[in-house]
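Batch job 17 of 40 flagged for manual review because the log was empty.
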Amino acid sequence: MRPRPFFLWFFLPSLAAAVLLVAALGEIAQYAFRVFTPGSLEVGGFTLDNFARLARPIYLSVLGDTLLISLATSLFTLLLSYPVAYAMVRAKSDFLRSLIMLLAVTPLFTGEIVRTYAWILVLGSNGFVNTVLKSAGLIGAPLGLLYTRFGVIVALVQFSMPVMIIILATALAHVDRNCERAAANLGAGPAQVFRHVTLPLTLPGVVSGTVVIFAWTMSAFSTPQLIGGGKVLMISNLVYLQGLSSFNFPFAAVLSLLALAVAMGSLGSMHPFVSRLELKAAIN
């Protein structure tokens, strides 16, 4: 079969993007094995000391915080987004369905920096949350919500919810309602129908959304940079400090490769667990 001419025009941009990505990763990889020269932008010869430096407690702590924040963000985003996606898909009124969708995706139309500064105003010592709690007499002194892991996770969850809602809504829209009706006709209550029919059928969307948000959060920069205020560091922030503040490009390259390896390794290790979960749900 003779290939159609327009296929080549669609393929070339993807190929060019792939080549640029591989070239960029190759450049980062070669920097990781070079000697850092203090006070100079030039790098030295071959070395493995940059990788040995990763064993220091401070860098292990940043890696642990990155994994913890990414995992917590993906789980809380899933828990908060599923009811919204369910209501959006199952709403009987077209107006209500459109309204929920509009409210869900509106945060995507605002810049990340704008949303981050909005959360600074909400979580600050004199921000919205502390002002309301003090006015209600529930607290005597402001709560330390800003510059904490909690504050970073809250902001990241809000940023991630629109994407998760879209993914979950797509999965829910593909659920065959006849399966739910059949379970209800056999005597299952609403909770049983959801647990044994709806949730198992939407597991691919649940897994996809969780994986996407986890990987997305692993590379978060501006939110932990501003909400964390330098007290909560993630790998991206550490790469910035090493590369653009200290000009230690070799170690910044090592940290970049580490973040990529951890993200890919974590996603790969989830596959056997997800397969067993889906098989168990299908059997039940």
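Reviewer: the log was empty due to a logging misconfiguration, but the result itself is present. The chain is about 75% helix and 0% strand. Unflagging and moving on to job 18.
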